[in-house]
Amino acid sequence: MSTVHDAVIVGAGFGGMGAAIALKRLGLDDLVILDRESDLGGTWHVNRYPGLAVDIPSATYSYSFEPNPYWSRLFAPGAELKRYARHVAEKYDLARHMRFDAVVDGATWQPEASTWLVRLAGGGSVEARYLLTATGFLSQPRMPDITGIDSFAGHVVHTTDWDDSYDFAGKRAAIIGTGATAVQLIPELAQQVSELTVYQRTPIWVSPKVDFGVPEVVQQLFASVPLSQRAARLVGTSVLEAMMVSGVLHYRRAKVINQLAERWCRAHLNRQVPDPALRRKLTPDYSFGCKRPTFSNDYFPTFNREHVHLETTSISHLDATGLVTSDGRRTDVDVLVLATGFNLWDVNFPAIEVIGKDGRNLGEWWRATRFQAYEGVSVPGFPNFISLNSPYSYSGLSYFTTIECQMRHMERLFTALRERGADTFEVTEQANDAFLARMRDLVGDSVFALGHCATANSYYFNQHDEATLLRPTSTVSALRAAGSFPLDAYAYA
Ligand code: NAP
């Protein structure tokens, strides 16, 4: 006889922990949290590259119900996020549910038993009434498909698998990629290596980062008067809301905010890089917000240094000693850093195989129809399944906004389930279709539809060139919807 647990949560990052807290509040305590890594924290466990820090103010990038008064900086370093994750796991009694090094192969709905069977790689399975996937958006590293990369005889490291034992001092290094990760890493690498060549395919919009150490007296104030930290959170959230929601998602109505953000980034670059040719290379040719922007004060100045070179000619191939660009120039290096990001749309969505009712395969269904999920949470044909990393689920810029919306949705849904004395829930096709139609309509007002995004190479767009990652509403509206969606959007049985 196998044990049927209340729920299996796949992923022990902040999303999975938020889901577990929501379930515990609902009285569901028999939880199994599976994670392929050897510890909790998700992205903040995996990423350890030098310069790693949150690029959203920490008072905002944390659970609203679990503020941390002791962030050392306005933008906390990565290690503090990992410590915060551990603190949350302990305080909310989550650690005892977690199983690490547990790679999930797939999950199948079992209609006779109304349970999910979750298969583990290497054998074994876990059965539960509810399945929640919290596998992250940025969790499948992208390895660049460049000719000859395997023949490179030097050291190769991807930013998600940082090699702490490798000594970069005095080495000739190359880095491929100029996304938010590279923006944090490049200034750090430049301090260690003798030569650094940065291979940029698409420049990134970079805003100044107003960062400073939080004085102890302010930390004490946050600890003794929580309202003061809530006010700080509100300020951070409002700035992000103006930039990302008004300027990007509500572009039709608030184009001027987008233009201001772009001008703000341009002025930052102009102030920091005196050479006009270099400046041109670092200036994006797509609208602000088509691609995720970032914040940094030391990224641009790094390119003014003698030993740092910006290479914008495409890479033709690699060989044993270095990289060759399409115009035939070669750069020999000792170490190659891949800051090449993540593959969202081919190997994520979903990150594991999920088979619902009548054998419906979630990944295949999303690709054969459209990427869709009701309120970014549930999918027709998949009873008792909460998909936290779904199309149109990401709300605002701080991931915690998304997590808390989803926690609220779960609270309303599971309460309704209990009040009806039902065992299963499943979103109706009608509710899902109406939500998808509304999202597609709203995306039409965003920079993704109305701006110049063709050259952005943005992971906000899927393989069909549709911007299906971000929820195109304000975070306030997302939060409201999570607490008031019509209960008949679901069928209960
Ligand atoms: P990313 O934004 O996807 O950037 C990957 C970079 O690699 C891009 O510049 C991309 O160029 C380049 N690239 C990929 N394949 C390539 C190839 N074959 N040849 C040449 N260039 C190639 O990934 P990321 O920088 O790791 O950041 C991902 C996300 O993580 C961020 O957007 C952000 O949401 C999150 N992040 C957050 C923080 C934080 O503090 N909260 C910090 C770091 C990252 P193209 O643009 O041309 O494709």
UniProtKB/TrEMBL annotation:
<dbReference type="InterPro" id="IPR036188">
    <property type="entry name" value="FAD/NAD-bd_sf"/>
</dbReference>
<protein>
    <submittedName>
        <fullName>NAD(P)/FAD-dependent oxidoreductase</fullName>
    </submittedName>
</protein>
<dbReference type="InterPro" id="IPR051209">
    <property type="entry name" value="FAD-bind_Monooxygenase_sf"/>
</dbReference>
<dbReference type="Pfam" id="PF13738">
    <property type="entry name" value="Pyr_redox_3"/>
</dbReference>
